[in-house]
Design a protein that fits this description.
The protein is mainly alpha-helical. It has a single domain (about 10-110), classed as Orthogonal Bundle (Helix Hairpins), CATH 1.10.287. It has helices at about 5-10, 15-25, 35-40, 40-65, 65-85, 90-100, 105-110. The chain is globular. Pathway: Amino-acid biosynthesis; L-histidine biosynthesis; L-histidine from 5-phospho-alpha-D-ribose 1-diphosphate: step 2/9. It is found in: Cytoplasm. Its EC number is 3.6.1.31. Keywords: Amino-acid biosynthesis, ATP-binding, Cytoplasm, Histidine biosynthesis, Hydrolase, Nucleotide-binding.
Length: about 120
């Protein structure tokens, strides 16, 4: 099965969003929400992502599909802001996901050993 051009374009939406986040890093925090988030530092970005992740879970459990879609978009945005703040590029995550592709989740987790 081949992907349509629309699907291919959507596959890169996170990369485009990350590029926008990086571009906003130098914007005025008074006029850019993204610049404001980044200026607050990685810990605050992590806290905000955590809040959005909880809101996503609540939407999935009790608020229906539309709310889940909206909250998922918020969570992904804030995850990318966190990555930018922490110096993680999407390619780093895509590479790790590709490394895990085809490996049982149980086997992959076991390979990490005990924390």
């Amino acid at each position: 099965m081949t992907r349509s051009s629309s699907e291919a374009a959507q596959a890169h939406v996170l990369d485009r969003l990350f590029a926008t986040i990086e571009a906003r890093r130098s914007a005025d925090p008074e006029t850019s929400h993204t610049a404001r988030q980044l200026a607050r530092g990685t810990l605050k970005c992590a806290e905000k992502f955590g809040e959005e992740a909880v809101e996503t879970v609540i939407a999935a459990a009790a608020q229906g599909r539309e709310a889940l879609v909206a909250e998922s978009a918020d969570a992904l945005y804030h995850l990318l802001v966190l990555w930018a703040s922490a110096g993680v590029a999407p390619e780093d995550v895509w590479t790790e996901l590709a490394r895990r592709e085809g490996i049982s989740g149980i086997a992959e987790k076991a390979s990490r050993g005990k924390a």
